[in-house]
Specification:
Layout (H helix, E strand, L loop, with lengths): L1 E4 L4 H12 L7 E4 L9 H4 L7 E4 L2 E4 L1 H11 L10 H30 L7 H16 L14 H16 L4 H4 L4 H10 L11
Parallel strand pairs: 1-2
Antiparallel strand pairs: 1-3, 3-4
Helix pairs in contact: 1-3, 1-6, 4-5, 4-6
Amino acid sequence: MILYSAPASPFGRKVKLAAHCLGMADRITVRPTNTGDPDDEIRTVNPLGKIPALVTDGHTLYDSRVIVEYLDSLAGGGKLLPTSGDARFEVLTRAAKMDGIMDAALLVVYEARFRPEGMQVETVLQTQRDRIIRGLASIGDDAYANGAMPDLGEIGLACLLDYLDFRKQVDWRDHAPQLVSWMKDFGAAVPGYDDTLPAD
């Protein structure tokens, strides 16, 4: 399997971390991808030119949630995402919240990266920061207890917090101090955590 991703992508990291948890990291080759390069292969793999994308058995999967669910199914199912019932939709809803906060965090980065200095729109930046802060404040204070097999929502939360530390859109500890011990416990328990930290 070939995973098109970038070292800094929090969505690509979700897939890589999931693969570690499922014991499948050695079955995936990561292809470094630059979505800003019009000649990058990602545009032929995924017509949207977005990462992550996973090529496997002659077909391509897009979107980190789809890819993680696919990997979970290869591992027998029900490991990172319950297969049915209320528990499944609870995890999917938490995962969607984390993805939404990550989307807002990426938009803050893109506003600074793609608009010339002095032309960035502060109202856009503040709208996205407010979404990040509201999202963080809505996350509970349950201790991390799933050991080496987190669920999809927990993987998303860890990737989100580390991405905020990496790009510094907001200091999540100011808005969600209840997550400090959660993050420490997650990092200590989950395989591949250090190996998949975001990098430039």
